[in-house]
Amino acid sequence: MHEKLFWNSDMPATTLPANHAPNVAPPLATPGQLGFFYRIGLTARRIFPAIADLASNEVYVLASAIAFNALLALYPFLLLVLLTCREVLHWNTGVETTLFLLKTTYLPVAEDFIVRNLRVVLEEHTNRGVAVFSIVALIFTSAGIFTPLELALNRAWRVKQPRSGWKSQLLAMGLVPVCGVCFLLIVALTAGMQWLATQLLGNAGVPRLASFMTLVGAKVLSLPITIGMLFGLYMILPSERPAARRVLPMAVWVGLLWEAAHYVFVACLPLIDFRKTYGPFYVTVSLVMWAFVSSLLLLLGANLAALDVASRPGAPPSPPAAR
């Protein structure tokens, strides 16, 4: 069948097939869709499912495993970094800068207590014995950190074929020296910033301002490296590599959120008062809680990236979260 389309009575008739679909431009976005509140609502629709998924039993178990093994790995990792600076690199400035970063940037509680004990271990114990202990401890605890993280990222990206056990173990052990190199890079940049601030401000009679500028510089310089480490974990740990353009924005957001969460956590510690509840174990409990919060933030970024892919046209429907 054919139907006639007439532009006007004077023009000749033009015939088109009945099933022909005219080329119609897609409708433009409405002002409401381009508005601020529409974008906020769109973001909320993606964030809330990702946050709700963190309450699942599976995520809770994986995050707890990551936090526990992170606590076990913290002390030997720091000892190995300090020994590398002093015995391998013969870099005493690196030792002092590492302790400075621990006191001012990374440790949320009992900074003086932990740093003082690290100094005692370095001065009173044999270097070879401490190094062997640190390496052996990191071999066992690295798998406990990165393997649950790999499982959690595979779950977020809905990977169907995970790695075998020995491949996951080798990957976890390989990531330990990579993290150590990244941390040493942060130490080197902070040491350079500290030297520059001392030359410019310390000699001018304002040492406090020099220390403040060193702290600010350490924050500014370490944040891109932290984001790069998060991006690397998001890309390397899943058994199936995700698209980098989806992962990078989430790594940036998680890095910024982790930095903000550190200040919030430190501010809330006096209100929670773990010392009153747990007595002498409050330091351990505080460190485990911070590691648990950090692991949840890491998994939140993976969930957001996965939801961003799933929300696009043609993406398969997301299965319900395991409970």
From TrEMBL:
It is found in: Cell membrane. Coiled coil: none annotated. The chain crosses the membrane at residues 59-82, 89-109, 129-149, 170-197, 209-235, 247-272, 278-302. Pfam families: Virul_fac_BrkB. Keywords: Cell membrane, Membrane, Transmembrane, Transmembrane helix. Its main location: membrane. It is a multi-pass membrane protein. GO terms for cellular component: plasma membrane. This is Putative membrane protein. It comes from Chloracidobacterium thermophilum (strain B).
